[in-house]
Design goal:
Blueprint: E1 2-7, H1 11-23, E2 28-34, H2 37-47, E3 51-55, H3 63-73, E4 78-83, H4 88-97, E5 101-104, H5 109-156, H6 162-172, E6 181-189, E7 194-195, H7 199-209, E8 217-220, E9 226-230, H8 236-248, E10 251-259, H9 266-282, E11 287-290, H10 304-316, H11 320-336, H12 341-359, H13 366-377, H14 379-382, H15 386-403, H16 411-426, H17 433-440, H18 444-455, H19 459-475, H20 482-488, H21 494-505, H22 509-518
Parallel strand pairs: 1-2, 1-3, 3-4, 4-5, 10-11
Antiparallel strand pairs: 6-7, 6-9, 6-10, 8-9
Helix pairs in contact: 2-3, 3-4, 5-6, 10-11, 10-12, 11-15, 12-13, 12-15, 16-18, 19-21, 20-21
Length: 519
């Protein structure tokens, strides 16, 4: 039912209009009646009707003046001028006001009804179009977040098609790409220390901090990462405001910022900003970080092989805290020099692999070695922060220690086996008790004592016997001189070599060569 306001200073005209509306059962309800222009304006304000029929000639304020005031404030009201005066200036004024129709008195009921029917039809069409536009608007509002997300994803991955770009920019209201910086951020709940992945929460955070970024284009990617294209260069005050807001609301922000002009395109700029964001989160360096402030500095890290021996010796001694201290020492150096996340993980993975596959190769079964190899390989997929890395290291070291039980081998057995293996592999070089003990990270006195206790022989005695056995094999070929054989087994003085050889075998090395050539 539509509302109708009728205005005429003659009561008989008002009665006529009521009669027609009632007789023809029009879907109209007369919401008000007025007899002058002032009353018409007041009732229009009060009822805001859909239609209004108004006479021109009335006291105080004529119909055209009242219609102009009403039309200006409520342009959707369809106004019909009903007058006995067919003056040109009235008609012209009515056209300027944009009234629906200009009707002359007297008017037949049939003509009035036809006019109102056209008005109702037009009103219904407008209502349908408005409803359709509203639904379209609501639908666009519903899909806007996903559309914006896809638009940003395509933008940072350099996959934006020209046709898609035009449609997305029109719907999202993007006029141009006057963005100066890209910010990539991850947020952490400071109470639980968990990364926030809820898109609704991050969107609220983004809406709050985006004011500092001059209302740039932003969206939340799957997984909770915020991407913002800002129109202003971030200043220290702006970053301070953002950090304060996040801190006061219980959020930790880990963000990387890059000036778009520094990179060849948006795709490469995003990758760099994202790397800064992930490195900041990995090392738990909260705040907003610029590319120039997060450049990796050169650092001298210890060789993995050196740390390997020291860590494994501690494993054998079950010194967990010392093991973690050794590894933390290297991680601290990496953090201080803004080392990349992948490099830190690579160093740790290499270290653990050497410990499992080299240091413990004679202790672990093949199945156990493969188990640890797979566990080390999976580290990269699980890590987000350096705390996760430390937990993974501690878990692997703990499991490794549980496998190396006294029933399998004692630490002294391990040191002796390594020492004997080292002698067998390096007898031709300069080998000393002090040198071997240093490689095992134990004292020479301790190595000498356990070696004598376990083997019944001294270190020097085992080294000499190993050299004599190797020398005997070489001498029996008849291809080398006494001096050449001595040098090949690590004894460079021919006279001393001959003396030692004869002492252990009761035969001179030259005699063995002579016998070999005579055969």
């Amino acid at each position: 039912m539509y509302k109708l306001l009728i205005v005429d200073d003659e009561l008989i005209e008002l009665q006529f209009l009521r009669y027609v509306i009632d007789k023809y059962k029009m879907p109209l309800k007369i919401c008000g009646e007025a007899q002058n222009g002032y009353q018409a304006v007041e009732l229009a304000e009060k009822f805001q009707p859909d239609f209004m029929i108004i006479d021109i000639s009335m006291p105080h304020k004529n119909g055209l003046e009242a219609a102009a005031m009403i039309k200006e404030k409520y342009p959707g009201i369809k106004i019909y001028i009903l007058t006995a005066y067919e003056r040109f200036d009235y008609a012209k004024k009515a056209i300027e006001i944009d009234v629906e129709d200009y009707l002359s008195k007297p008017i037949s009921p049939e003509k009035l009804i036809n006019v109102l029917k056209r008005g109702i039809k037009s009103k219904l069409k407008e209502k349908l179009e408005t409803s359709k536009a509203l639904r379209l608007h609501n639908n666009l509002k519903t899909i806007e977040p996903n559309l914006k997300k896809q638009f940003v994803v395509d933008l940072i991955n350099d996959n934006l098609k020209i046709g898609q770009e035009k449609v997305a920019k029109k719907i999202l209201g993007i006029k141009d790409y006057n963005y100066t910086q890209i910010l990539v951020a991850t947020f952490v709940d400071e109470k639980s220390s968990r990364i926030i992945i809820n898109e609704t929460t991050i969107t609220k955070i983004a809406a709050a901090i985006n004011k500092s970024l001059d209302n740039g284009l932003y969206t939340v990617l799957t997984g909770g990462k915020l991407i913002v294209f800002g129109k202003k260069q971030l200043t220290k005050d702006m970053m301070k405001d953002i950090n304060i807001w996040c801190s006061s609301n219980g959020y930790g922000i880990y963000a990387g910022v890059l000036t778009l002009s520094m990179e060849g395109n948006i795709h490469s700029a995003f990758n760099k900003a994202n790397e800064i964001c992930e490195n900041a989160l990995f090392w738990l360096n909260s705040g907003i970080h610029f590319s120039a402030n997060m450049e990796e500095k050169s650092c001298v890290l210890p060789k993995v092989s050196d740390v390997q021996g020291e860590v494994f010796s501690a494993v054998l001694r079950k010194e967990y805290s010392f093991i973690l201290e050794l590894i933390n020492r290297s991680l601290t150096v990496m953090n201080d020099t803004f080392c990349r996340k992948d490099k830190a993980i690579g160093f740790t993975s290499d270290l653990l692999t050497l410990i499992v596959c080299v240091s413990a190769k004679d202790i672990l079964t093949r199945e156990e070695t493969e188990f640890f190899r797979e566990k080390i390989a999976s580290i990269n997929n699980q890590l987000i922060t350096v705390t996760d890395l430390k937990n993974a290291i501690e878990n692997i070291i703990s499991e490794l220690c549980s496998k190396i039980t006294p029933a399998r081998i004692s630490s002294s057995d391990y040191y002796i086996n390594l020492t004997i293996d080292y002698i067998k592999q390096n007898y031709h070089a300069e080998v000393t008790l002090e040198g071997v003990a240093g490689k095992l990270f134990i004292s020479p006195f301790y190595l000498s004592r356990i070696f004598k206790k376990q083997t019944g022989q001294g270190f020097a005695e085992v080294l000499t016997k190993t050299r004599i056995e190797k020398a005997k094999t070489l001498l029996m070929t008849g291809k080398f001189s006494v001096g050449e054989v001595g040098r090949q087994v690590g004894i460079h003085d021919p006279s001393y070599f001959s003396s030692v050889f004869k002492k252990h075998t009761s035969i001179s090395p030259s005699k063995i060569i002579e016998d070999a050539k005579g055969q």
